[in-house]
Design a protein that fits this description.
The structure holds 2 protein chains of 2 kinds. Chain A is of the alpha/beta class. Helix content of chain A is 33%, strand content 15%. In chain B, the strands form 4 sheets. A 6-stranded mixed beta sheet of chain B has the order 2-3-1-4-5-6, with helices on both faces. The chains are: A alpha/beta, B alpha+beta.
Chain lengths: 306, 416
């Protein structure tokens, strides 16, 4: 009798978070008719893919991967996205905002404008096209205070809108996945992970990530408190000068508003040390679109953004 | 990399008890607040014409809440120390408190109940303690706050602890830890401070870091609700048939004899498989894939257990139900139950009594249940469920009720 109760090893916080995420992924697969997994090539969705491998191998994933391409993505990240999907042997669907712009579904004030805010149009179109009833995403509650109040299974009405006042109570690990036709669920299996957990997990699992997450020399300009990467989309204004600094990205998104931080961290261990000692939040440091107002993220979420 | 454990806790109390200040203090003094967050609340403090940094603003809500002066149920916050990682379920007080606290408490290892030292044990304190015991939270910290306003008096603290203990002796609370604190000045939250030398116990953070949580999960009774059947049907994995799920309680070894419920068929464990390789033994809460020696018919919603340790298998149940929805319970209507990985129709046919959460009196003759009501009910399920009593096993004794017409989650239940 006594033997059976010996625990072979103590489960760590990463083990517990991992098991929770696997449980969530399997619930989606079992209860949703036609889910998809949003994969951008960013670190959080790279972790999601590993969790999906843990949840479903040796079988294939019971859902395709979906990427909403703003057309403003870093090339390294897009290359990585394609390669990773190929290595996994999973189906990758890409829908691009360029197409939404061509169809006049998205109208930009000027061509280089940040496209993050318009992703929702293309995403909702893709959901309608493929009749997805659930989209699995890599959002985390520690990212932003609008996310802190979001459920793991988060409901969107027919307009793709999130209504923070009208969320379903979520108790224990019992997820209510039922939707009416036309409604959609966003599922966030890594809701309870922090930026630190993500980096520790990437290190533990030895996951490959796009090179721009590591320190590299890059031409940047200072705008406000942020560093903006110089590219064909971002040119210095008259009074601004270009500097070349050692930087890395903490998040990767639209090139016009994703800012790197100064860093010499060239290994995962270095990044973990920096993450442990940083004094600025992930989005505060790196996303100009979230700094516009105190409630930027909340407004974008209500419009159907992830 | 250091291996640290995860502790989930809930804070119960209203804004007036200093709950937001306490959470702000925990985050601030454990260095979990970032400069841009501090900068934002400094700005807000100044805009409101106040001095310094109001830590309670750290837990300030969404624009929708600020505009309408409402608070939206549960917000989750995260911090870590070198010893542990913490998830706080922060639930606003006042209205809808029962619903919010039950939601936040359902996954918690520990609850912090805040008491204002000037006011002592109030009706709401009793309500919080009752809910903590109903949801079976293993550890309860009674934080007597605002000690600075009662001259850091040992007598005041001891008298409140005495009152609480007297009341709580009638409840099912396993481990009660009283701490005198001042969230405003920080005494006994993270730093000990010098104002209460008479207190020799641990600070709040020390309790959170050190409390033993290994026994919070039932490690006796192996329960494995099947989530998903893995059948790759590829050349390489032609005959592979794996039962995927999470071990909700207990542990399992290769060779163990298992029974599948409700069918009652038995087999032995051939392999415990994971993406990282096969295991000899697995424990809750690991997610694994089980391979059995015999080919038996198993589908999602079935439960695999050890043959010598079986749960109850029944179609009729008694349970404590917490009603969460604005739509009242209508006993003539049909609802769905989601219990482990099984969803089935139920008929709630009897309200035995409703509990007054303020007086703990049991009220009989109740016909309807409204939001925040807690009641003992009887119900019938279309298919047999394998379950344990909630007090014995949180995972196999809990369920939610879904309204089939609206798809809303309308109640949370705990099997008796």
């Amino acid at each position: 009798m006594g033997n059976l109760h010996i625990i072979s090893r103590r489960l760590t916080h990463l083990d517990v978070l991992e098991s929770e995420a696997i449980h969530i992924l399997r619930e989606v697969a079992a209860e949703c008719a036609n889910p998809s997994l949003l994969f951008s090539g960013g670190k959080d969705s790279i972790v999601l893919l590993r969790l999906a491998e843990k949840a479903f191998r040796p079988a294939k994933f019971p859902f395709p991967l979906l990427h909403i391409d703003t057309g403003h993505n870093f090339l390294e990240v897009i290359d990585f996205r394609n390669r990773r999907a190929l290595e996994l042997g999973e189906r990758l669907i890409v829908r691009s905002m360029e197409e939404s712009i061509r169809q006049k579904r998205v109208i930009l004030k000027h061509p280089d404008q940040s496209r993050n805010a318009f992703q929702s149009v293309t995403l909702l179109d893709a959901i309608a096209e493929f009749r997805f009833d659930a989209c699995i995403g890599g959002a985390r509650r520690d990212e932003e205070k609008a996310r802190a109040k979001e459920r793991i299974f988060s409901f969107r009405d027919e307009f793709g809108q999130w209504d923070p006042k009208n969320q379903r109570p979520e108790l224990w690990d019992l997820y209510n996945t039922r939707v009416h036709p036309g409604e959609n669920i966003r599922v966030f299996p890594i809701s309870n992970w922090t930026e630190m957990d993500i980096w520790q997990y990437i290190a533990r699992e030895k996951l490959e990530i796009p090179s721009i997450y590591f320190a590299h020399r890059r031409k940047v300009i200072r705008r406000g408190d942020s560093l903006l990467p110089v590219s064909h989309l971002v040119r210095p204004l008259e009074h601004e000068k270009i500097e070349e600094l050692s930087v890395r990205f903490r998040t990767v998104g639209d090139m016009t508003c994703t800012c790197p931080v100064e860093s010499n961290a060239s290994t995962l261990e270095d990044i973990i040390v920096e993450t442990a000692t940083t004094r600025v939040t992930e989005r505060g440091a790196t996303r100009m679109d979230d700094q516009t107002s105190d409630a930027s993220m909340e407004l974008r979420k209500k419009e159907g953004y992830f | 990399m250091k291996n640290i454990e995860l502790l989930r806790f809930i804070t119960a109390g209203s804004v007036d008890d200093g709950k937001s200040t306490l959470i702000g203090r925990l985050l601030h003094d454990s260095k979990s607040i970032f400069e841009d967050q501090l900068c934002a609340i400094e700005k807000t403090t100044k805009r409101r014409g106040l001095e310094g940094v109001d830590l309670s603003l750290l837990t300030d809500g969404l624009q929708a809440e600020r505009e309408q002066g409402i608070t939206i149920d549960v917000a989750y916050r995260y911090f870590a120390t070198p010893k542990r990682k913490f998830i706080i379920a922060d639930t606003p007080g006042h209205e809808q408190y029962t619903r919010n606290m039950v939601t936040g408490a359902s996954t918690a290892n520990l609850a912090i109940i805040l008491i204002d030292a000037r006011r002592g044990v109030l009706t709401q304190t009793r309500r919080h303690a009752y809910l903590a015991s109903l949801v079976g939270i293993p550890h309860l910290v009674v934080a007597v706050n605002k000690m600075d306003l009662v001259g850091y008096s040992k007598e005041v603290f001891e008298s409140i602890v005495g009152d609480f203990g007297e009341f709580a002796s009638g409840l099912n609370l396993r481990n009660i830890i009283p701490i005198p604190i001042s969230a405003l000045s920080g005494d006994n939250v993270v730093e000990r401070g010098s104002s209460m030398p008479w207190y020799e116990g641990e600070t709040l953070l020390e309790v959170l870091e050190n409390i033993e949580i290994d026994h919070d999960i039932n490690m006796e009774d192996f329960r494995f609700p099947v989530q998903w059947i893995c059948r790759p049907q590829t050349e390489e994995w032609r005959d592979f048939r794996g039962y995927m799920g999470r071990i909700e309680s207990g542990s399992l070894r290769i060779g163990d004899e298992v029974t599948v419920l409700p069918s009652g068929r038995t087999s032995r464990v051939r392999a415990i498989s994971t993406f990282d390789g096969d295991l000899i033994e697995a424990v809750a809460p690991q997610s694994v894939t089980l391979l059995l020696e015999d080919e038996i018919d198993i589908s999602r919603g079935d439960m695999i257990v050890k043959s010598e340790n079986r749960p109850d298998l029944s179609k009729e149940f008694e349970a404590m139900l917490c009603w969460l929805s604005e739509d009242r319970l209508d006993v003539r209507r049909r609802y769905l139950i989601k219990h482990t990985t099984k969803t089935a129709r139920i008929m709630i046919d009897r309200i035995a009594c409703r509990v007054n959460v303020n007086t703990l009196e049991q009220e009989s003759g109740v016909e309807v249940l409204s939001m925040n009501d807690i009641a003992r009910v009887g119900f019938k399920v279309q298919q047999a469920l394998a379950s344990d009593s909630y007090s014995k096993n949180r995972a196999t004794g809990s369920f939610i009720v879904i309204d089939e017409a609206t798809n809303n989650t309308v109640a949370a239940g705990m099997m008796i």
